[in-house]
Structures are given as C-alpha cells and as structure tokens.
Amino acid sequence: MLLRQVFFPLVSDVEGWSKLAKNLKAEIDQELIEAYRGTVSFPFSVGEYKQCAVKIVDDRRIESLRIIKL
C-alpha cells in the first residue's frame, strides 16, 4: 500500500505533524502542511485494480481498513 495522504483532524498542530516528524526524526516542510490539512482527499488516478484503500486510526488507536472498488 502506498501512502498518499494523512489527516490529523482531532489533534492540534503540535500533536499532529510535529509529533510525526519527531517520531520519524525528519523535518516536515511547513509550506506543504497547508495542503495536507482538512479531511478531503486529493484527486488521484485510478490504478490498474480500480480500488482505493482508506485506513482510519482513531484516538484509542483502533484501526479500521476499507478497500473500496471504484
């Protein structure tokens, strides 16, 4: 699975991207952060299998994965 977009809708700026950058020991480009805010997916091309996957991890760390046929 190729990660295309990540949302942190229930956390503050300090808890979301900053925490991820710290855990990955990486720097997050602040100019690109605005493009990733919100809960609406970027447009994407339909691949060979005509499916997309949506994975949700809630604040209790419960994971749900759904593969949707397009």
Describe the structure.
There is one protein chain. The protein is of the alpha+beta class and 70 residues long. It has one domain. Helix content is 21%, strand content 20%. The chain contains 2 helices and 2 strands. 0% of the residues are buried.
Per-chain topology:
Layout lengths: L16 H8 L5 H7 L14 E7 L5 E7 L1
Antiparallel strand pairs: 1-2
Q: What are the salient characteristics of this protein?
A:
globular; single chain; 70 residues
**Portion of residues within helices:** 10-25%
Mean pLDDT score, rounded?
Answer: 76
Question: What count of structural domains?
Answer: 1
How is the main sheet built?
2 strands, antiparallel
What's the Cα radius of gyration?
14 Å
| Sheet with most strands: strand arrangement | 1-2
Overall body shape: globular
Number of strands: 2
Strand-pairing-aware structural class: alpha+beta
**Helical segment count:** 2
Report the β-strand fraction as a percent range.
15-25%
Please trace the helix and strand order, writing H or E for each element.
Answer: HHEE
How far is it from the N-terminal to the C-terminal residue, by CA? 16 Å
* Low-confidence region ranges: none
